[in-house]
Amino acid sequence: MKKILSFLLTLIMFLSFITPIYANDLKLAEKAKSAILIEASTGEILFEKNADEKLHPASMTKMMSMLLIIEAIEDGVLKWDQVIQVSENASSMGGSQILLETGEKMSVLDLFKGVAIASGNDAVVALAEAVAGSESNFVSMMNKRAKELGLTNTNFKNPHGLDDDNHYSTSRDMSIIAKELVKHDEVLKYTKVYEDYLRENTDRKIWLVNTNRLVRFYDGVDGLKTGYTEKAGYCMTATAMKDGMRIIAVVMGEETSKIRNQEVSEMLDYAFAQYKVVNMLSNKNLGKYRVSNGKEEYVNVVPTSEVTMLKKKSESNDNLSYEVKVKNLKAPIKKGDNIGNLIIKENGNAVRTLTLTTDKDIPKASFLDLFLRNIKDMIIGNMNLY
After folding, report:
1. Structural domain of residue 296, as residue ranges?
2. Does residue 320 share a domain with residue 239?
3. Angle, nearest 10°, between helix axes 62-74 and 135-148?
4. Is residue 309 assigned to a domain?
5. Residue 327 annotated as catalytic
6. Is the domain of 178 the same as that of 44?
């Protein structure tokens, strides 16, 4: 009987750790229509409130736009120093803007600053057209990327977030976009800037002030995106890094910007006071594994993401361990291919599974490669006889 009670107690403690805390359990985001709080490296949910309610996301939409833009830059579709000529469509955008004029020329970098810092609707449309050829093509890319990320309650009708009845998302989906976006350090380089200028040394100089006031007033906040429209209310996705832990907080449908900032700050305070991230690997290389018929016989195996665990600060790390399971490797293998799993365990129980890959491509060996390798093995084998 004692063993059964002990097991049940252990199970309850385990479930209390992995189960997200809901709105009635904490005094957080009380005035928001919807909210969620996650740790970025694991995706663990620390708190949620109506996280799947479909609402207008306002300018938080621009997180998806920035994700596609930074991916286009990394893929070579755009370059930071590339100069874009502004279309009439882009310059006609209402709402927040950096006052672009039709025919004006501006670099991708300055336009991106206009989005990341000042939430310029005109700037994001100009970049969207540069990436996809037209605003409508870009919106199709946004919805395609949303599906790739597993977003089930999001539909985009534009790249900026101005109200449209069929333009909606949820706190949960916004947090997933943010989780993907913060993987790109170059984005955070600009979303953390409080103020900057565009068109300096001209008579059209404009002062950019970050719509996210927390980048100045909350230690560790380096993004991401605020939003406001009449239908959406005041929204925010904020991220902060402290002590090696990155937290993402989302609120939607707040009554005022002051309440929005206060409730996000309280969510971040709670996360940093209660939780820590344990890095399971000091070296991502998990060892060399043999590749059958490969141009190289061995390859290093690495995880595809950070090997971390979220723990309460009051909890010990001693009960954490991991197990490596690698498939039989056969060339050709591409870096990024799924070649096995890394299983993180707590008290011997699997709690998180990460995908493993190789640190480089391994092409298939030619007949000559295999012939020379066999000769080499024979020589070494004969030498070992003496």
Report:
1. 288-383
2. no
3. 90
4. yes
5. no
6. yes
- The full DSSP string for 31-82 is T-SEEEEEETTT--EEEEESTT--B--GGGGHHHHHHHHHHHHHTTSS-TT-
Is 105 a member of any domain?
Answer: yes
Helix axes 108-116, 121-132, angle to 10 degrees: 130
Domain's final residue, options 243, 275, 307: 275
Catalytic-role residue among 34, 65, 96, 119: 119
At 258, list the tokens.
């002051």
The pLDDT of residue 14: 41
Is 169 inside any structural domain?
Answer: yes
Choosing from 33, 41, 49, 59, the catalytic residue is 59
One domain, residues 253 and 178: yes
**Do 166 and 260 lie in a common domain?**
yes
Which pTM was predicted? 0.86
Residues 371 and 340 in one domain: yes
Give yes or no: residues 216 and 141 share one domain: yes
Based on the domain organization, do 171 and 216 belong to the same domain?
yes
Best CA proximity match to 224, nearest among 214, 234, 232? 214
Per annotation, catalytic residue among 33, 41, 49, 62: 62
Last residue of a domain, one of 217, 249, 275: 275
292 is catalytic: no
C-alpha dihedral sign at 185, 187, 190, 191: negative
Structural domain count, the chain: 2
Position 384 scores a pLDDT of 56
Per run of 10 residues, the mean pLDDT along the chain (length 386 residues) is 45 44 73 98 96 98 98 97 97 94 97 97 98 98 98 98 97 98 97 95 92 96 97 98 96 98 98 94 87 90 91 90 93 94 92 93 82 67 53
| Residue 228 covered by a domain | yes
Sheet holding 329-330, edge to edge: 320-326, 340-346, 349-358, 298-303, 288-292, 329-330
- Print burial letters for 193-222: b (CB count within 10 Å at least 16), e (below 16): beebebeeeeeeebebebbbbbbeebebbb
pLDDT of residue 372: 72
Q: What distance separates the 2 farthest-apart alpha carbons in the chain?
A: 85
Active site (annotated) includes residue 345: no
Amino acid 26: pLDDT: 81
